[in-house]
Specification:
The protein is built from 1 helix and 13 strands. The protein is mainly β and about 170 residues long.
Length: about 170
Amino acid sequence: LFLDCPHGQTFGKKCYIKCAQQTKMSAGEGSVTCEEDGKWSAQTAHCVMTCPHPVTPANSRPRENDCSDGKRTLFPGTSCKYQCKAGYSVKESDGTRKIFKMRCTKSGRWTQPVCEPTKCPSISVMAMWYNCSNGNAMGSVCTSFCPGQEVRTTFYLKICWHIFPSECNDIVVV
């Protein structure tokens, strides 16, 4: 916050309140006047911190929000909803949380949730029968190596596995 007094600071002269970068004038009069008693008139406006328009986090997309509207001022406390893309979930969640909010903080910065590749819990049975490029995460390329079988089957893991067959012979590749 600073004052711009283009005509000086004597009786009857106005000084205009100027807000620093990334702040915006609140509602009210954006100036003060030097009064006859040598005091400034009451300041009815002040500068408040704002956040720049958020950048969509990697591996996510905006949800029904108007945070991308360049005309809207985003004050601290404003939140914008996003959703992780298919195959991703919110970091530090149980792998099922897809929707998250970014919040404008008092410092004028956005909170930074992260979408990371969805991973399924490791299951020891899988290690016995399959060799996958990235564990049992979506997108892994897996090769079966059942004991006693000479033919190896390679496939692309499109979903996380939650249930495994009890025997190699029961494996169905979809």
